[in-house]
Amino acid sequence: MNHSRTFSRRATLASLAGAALAGTATIRASASERHGQHGRYGRTVRFATFNASLNRATEGALVTDLSTPDNAQARNVAETIQRVNPDILLINEFDYVEGGAAVRLFLDNYLSQGQRGARPIHFPHHFTGPVNTGVPSGVDLDGKNGVVTTPGSDTYGQDAFGYGFFPGQYGMVVLSKFPIDTRAVRTFQHFLWKDMPGNVIPPGYYSDAARAILRLSSKSHWDVPVRLGHETVHFLVSHPTPPTFDGTEDRNGRRNHDEIRLWADYIGGHSRSAYLYDDKGVRGGLRPGSRFVIAGDQNADPYDGDSYDHAVRQFLDHPAINLPAKPPASAGGVEAAKLQGGANIGQLGNPAYDTGDFGDTAPGNLRVDHVLPSKGLLPGRNGVFWPTSDDPLYRLVGDGTTVVTSDHRMVWQDVRLG
Question: What pLDDT does 360 receive?
């Protein structure tokens, strides 16, 4: 691709994004305003994803931090959520605590308390569950140091089903203003990578023992049905592994690709999804015609970064997905790429669509967090919460040198039930 043409395209789109997103004060439409937009297309609902970095280095530390209302980072996360005001939200990197204590503390001590002038936000419904991160496999997955089963170290994380220092680190939670059909939730935590036909497991890297037990999902894949009046929308959420921190075998890049493929097959009809089985042993994918929204930190940019075979294009080119006319964008992403320079200069993608601030040397800022509605849902307004440096809310994102909240930005997409 001609780079001069690429940079011109980036600049043009960036200027359009900046004009469209001048200021962040207009982001927060009240729930009553959105839900009152019935008309011929039904209600408008805001879906969002946010890798909030509410993970901690030791087990139990998140509960400790959330037990009081004054943890600075948690307050920033809560304020970001309050400013965007989503109706249905996936939070990635929220340590899983059995029994849900961490979720309840965050709801009570942070989200239900107005942060720095933002209005409180209430989610009567939530779902969380176990994840593969930090769960010992009992096998020497990386072929080094033997089998490590004592939590708390990198060597332990390398032998866990998903990288983590303890079970539940880097977990997930879904928060919703609408009822969740918890009995109909499907989880794919235990699906084995080898059972995906045509998988891209790196040849020759894993031992036979490792291949026999290695789960595909590095955290989990959840189909969370949400009841919107008489309608149901399936919130398909996940957090594939970053396609980095490996070697020439590209084991993480390949796993990331197939974690994304799981949902692409799940929504692809019987011929593509028949091989899948959930944690209850139920086979197959989503019923044709079902409405869904795919959300999560996919750790994959369609143009830049280290993903294997442009992994996220499995979504962006999928016939069952109804892409908005323009992807979620921000003026802050454009400003950050310009000010930080470095790896951002040689990228092909439009910086207005970036959702992660990952450093200037490598890989630069990327579009890795996605909210993608299905056919049958009409995409409306959207955005990336990334204020510019002249915005009072810039304090919630910072300049990338010091991570004040998260190195990811919240991404939101309004949809109407068509």
Answer: 87
Would the pLDDT of 263 be above 80?
A: yes
Find the angle CA(98)-CA(104)-CA(110) to the nearest 5 degrees.
135
Q: How far apart are CA 352 and CA 334, in angstroms?
A: 5
- Give every CB contact of residue 294 below 8 A, 6+ residues apart in sequence: 236, 237, 263, 267, 315, 321, 370, 371, 372
Size of the chain in residues: 418
The pLDDT, as a whole number, for residue 43 is 87
User: How far, in Å, are 14, 136, 217, 296, 332 from residue 254 at the CA level?
Assistant: 31, 21, 12, 18, 31
Beta strand 172-176 with 125-128 is antiparallel
Question: Of the candidates 273, 171, 168, 255, which has an alpha carbon nearest to the alpha carbon of residue 211?
Answer: 255
Question: Whole-model pTM?
Answer: 0.93
Angle between helix 331-340 and 3-20 (nearest 10): 140
Element (H, E) at 95: none
Token pair, residue 14, equals 């960036």
Residue 212, strand partner residues: none
Taking only the tens place, the pLDDT of each residue in 389-401 is 999 999 999 998 8
What's the Cα-to-Cα distance from 118 to each of 82, 89, 343, 364, 388, rounded to whole Å?
6, 18, 35, 31, 18
Q: Rounded to an integer, what distance in angstroms lies between the CA atom of residue 207 and that of residue 212?
A: 9
What order do you get walking across the sheet with 172-176 strand by strand? 125-128, 172-176, 88-94, 44-54, 411-417, 377-384
Specify the residue for token string 């980095």: 244
